[in-house]
Structure formats: structure tokens, C-alpha cells
Amino acid sequence: MTFFKADGLSINFGGIRALDAVSFDVEAGQIFTIIGPNGAGKTTIFNLVSRIYDPLQGRLIFRDEEITRVAPHEIARRGIARTFQNLELFEHATVLHNLLLGRHAHKRSRFVEELLFLPRVRALELEHREAVETVIDF
User: Fold this and answer.
1) For the domain with range 2-77, which CATH number is right: 3.30.70.600, 2.60.120.680, 3.40.50.300, 3.40.50.1110?
2) Rounded Cα distance, 133 and 123, in Å
3) Most exposed: 38, 39, 93, 108, by fewest CB within 10 Å?
């Protein structure tokens, strides 16, 4: 099973073709890179994959599910994320706390539950902390 697949991605900006039928497969556990000179379309590919841009043509498939038209916040919930070139961190926060702030897309509790810090919220906080610690331990 292919973990992630881009199939024939194309996009135009102002009538200029930025990507033309780009395809690639990523297998589970594979280290995959996209390299090229400035203006080659690397960032555009990431913006398509994270659904910041809509492709003119092509499909995105993640774990056998077509995600070409899935909303960006739903893409993040599925575990697909990107970082930007200008990384902004909270200067006085730990690595753990900076990473926990990025987990907001995975939250499943409501404001009042969090305000009262109900047991469900405590359990979810532990779940998020364990997920982040797994990343840090890598």
C-alpha cells in the first residue's frame, strides 16, 4: 500500500504553469525529499499537499483515501502538516510546549470542558503529550 501519492498535479499562477503533471509515491517508512533550485515548485507542491492551494488537475491520495478536495484543517487532523521557512517559536517555551501548541488541530474538546479542566480534557492532554514526546524521542 502506498502511504502517499501525488498523481498528475498541475497548477497555474496568472496563466503560467507552475507545476505540470507532477507525480510521486511515498511508501510507509520511506524517507522522501523534494529538491530543486529556487522557483522549481517545491513550495507549491507542499502547498498543494497541505491543501493551501487547489490543484488545477491531479489527485492526492493518503492511505488509500483521496484527499484532493479535503479541507486544510481536516488534512492536519489526518496528520499531514508542513512548516514554513520562517519558523516562529515562543522564545521562553520549551520544545515540548512549542510542539504542544501545534497540536491544536487534533483537539476534540470544547471550550467549557477545557475551562473546567474536566477529566476528559486531562486524558486528552496526556494523549497529546505522549504523541509529542514520541516525536521528540525520534
Assistant:
1) 3.40.50.300
2) 15
3) 38
